[in-house]
Amino acid sequence: MTVDDIDTLAVLGAGTMGHGIAEVAALSGYDVRLRDINEELVQDGYDQIDWSLEKMADREYITEAEADAARGRIEPVVPVEDAVTGADVVIEAVPEDIDIKEDVYREVDEYAPEHAIYATNTSSLSITDLSELTERPGQFCGMHFFNPPVRMDLVEVIRGAHTDDETLETIEALAEALGKTPVRVRKDSPGFIVNRILIPMLNEAAWLVENDVGTIEEVDATATENLGLPMGAFELSDQIGNDVTLHILEYLQSIVGDAYDPAPLLEAAVNEERLGRKTDEGFYDYDDGGADYEDADTRAEVEHRLLAVMANETATLLDNDVATPDAIDQAMGLGAGFPDGPVALSEDVGLEALVETLDAAHEETGAERYVAAEYLRTAADSGGFDA
Questions:
Q1: One of 144, 189, 242, 347 is an active-site residue; which one?
Q2: Catalytic residue check, 272
């Protein structure tokens, strides 16, 4: 099957990501079945789409006719059979619980046509493991949208161990047809590209404050002023949701090891339900003006540690052939707003200096997260990641 054969998408899950993906698809001219487990959830998702389309029409991003046409292409349903019968692509966006996903795929297998491709929007779970829950692992891949899907340009397209080339190429072409930029993740690797680099950096920011290297405001001022990031690390974690940051870290820790040990500062925020913008309080109080670090001092040690951790994760991805240097920088630019990606940033500072930063931090703390990857050491000796 090629992208030209795709007319109908089934989107399973009408939550934040699911209804956003359905809206993008409908605006791009596809018929969409939006499914969730009961009428209330499906209707809530559809109502969110309706509100978003109305806002875009009011702001003249689209016309009223385009908004009405998009609404008319979306069919809210509850039975899985109604959602996937006749669908060309099934995009799964249900909660990040493998038992829930297994139940969903069991039903999807029963009713989806043989040619249908399955694409999961998981942000962290193994594409290979999920594909093995189905009867068609070759027609299964990751299609990781970023929040909110209507605005965010990036889609990580992830190959599982069983994904065939035609599936990957078709889903990349579909992402382009939806007006998005696909970035290929060559191998199924925990966190894929963006989360594998970004989330450890956010965790390192929390460790820096935990260990009195800098304050929250100083870390965020350094991230924006010295590294050029669009917002500070703590402000970004609040935006993502501190519970989401912690969940991804815990998953990485369970799969990869204690290099992803969450900082107590992050755990405390989640335990105290300071989840960020969605609860009006996280590392900053959004009922009292929100993030404010314009007048904070920047710190060279904070800059070097944040960048060293990102460089180490980048080296691991390159060593395992998960993505190319250009793909990594493109993904971080589109998915996390980095003006310069971690490859460019690291090489600009100098990989040798970053290895020295990691070695010094490891000697001081003994923490596994500061063990420099051999690939990073080799790249430092040879003059860069591309050398």
A1: 144
A2: no
